[in-house]
Amino acid sequence: MKNIVVFCGSSPGYDPVYMEQARLLGATLAQRNIGLVYGGAKVGLMGAVADGALQAGGQVHGVLPRFLQEKELAHTGLTTLLLVDTMHERKTKMNELADGVIALPGGFGTMEELFEMLTWGQLGLHKKPIALLNINGFYDALNQLSQTMTDQGFLSAPNRSMLLCSNSIDDLLTQMENYKAPEKDKWLTKEKT
């Protein structure tokens, strides 16, 4: 993996461990010579993961909608900052630049980005590993919900297995390196009538 996109909150969260782990993830990516692709902002976990990578000598590529730059949220110390017009363009460009996805804790925006990448993977539009860094058990409920989706017949077991998870950065990166996408796309054939 040359570049990993990190989706995460523009807020720091209440527990300092979130910022600490975001910085550590950025530094770990840099130490492994993996470029960071992220949303381009200087605030919250977004700023922390970028700063962690930059301080460790890593390459950091931000993708930011112009309207957020106008609010003075842009990180000014990045390797590259690509400005786009819409949130959809942002996700598309981030997907183009990255070989894998990690979601840190975040709110609705983080969840929307994560689920779009999962959906694209489920439909066979990419075969990238998608992972949750489960800091403080943040993603326990999402993992349980995903299992409920499978148990109730709304998500196949192979597609459920696309969502990697660990509370350890090193373990998560190892899972991503060893990831094999499901062989079959969600919609294989039309049922014969």
Read across the widest sheet, the strand sequence of neighbours is 4-3-2-1-5-6-7
In percent terms, what proportion of residues is strand?
15-25%
Give unreliable regions as ranges: 189-193
Main beta-sheet annotation: 7 strands, parallel
Please state the average pLDDT score.
93
Chart the SSEs and their pairings.
Blueprint: E1 3-7, H1 16-31, E2 35-38, H2 44-55, E3 60-65, H3 66-69, E4 80-84, H4 87-97, E5 100-103, H5 108-122, E6 130-133, H6 140-151, H7 157-160, E7 163-166, H8 169-177
Parallel strand pairs: 1-2, 1-5, 2-3, 3-4, 5-6, 6-7
Task: Please characterize this protein's 3D structure.
This protein is of the alpha/beta class and 193 residues long. It has helices at residues 16-31, 44-55, 66-69, 87-97, 108-122, 140-151, 157-160, 169-177; strands spanning 3-7, 35-38, 60-65, 80-84, 100-103, 130-133, 163-166. It is 43% helix and 17% strand. A seven-stranded parallel sheet has the order 4-3-2-1-5-6-7, sandwiched between helices. Helix 2 (44-55) links the parallel strand 2 and strand 3 (60-65). The radius of gyration is 17 Å and the shape is globular. The N and C termini lie far apart (44 Å). The model is unreliable at 189-193 (pLDDT under 50).
Short description:
The chain has 193 residues and is an alpha/beta fold.
Attribute tags:
alpha/beta, 7 strands, 17% strand, 8 helices, 193 residues
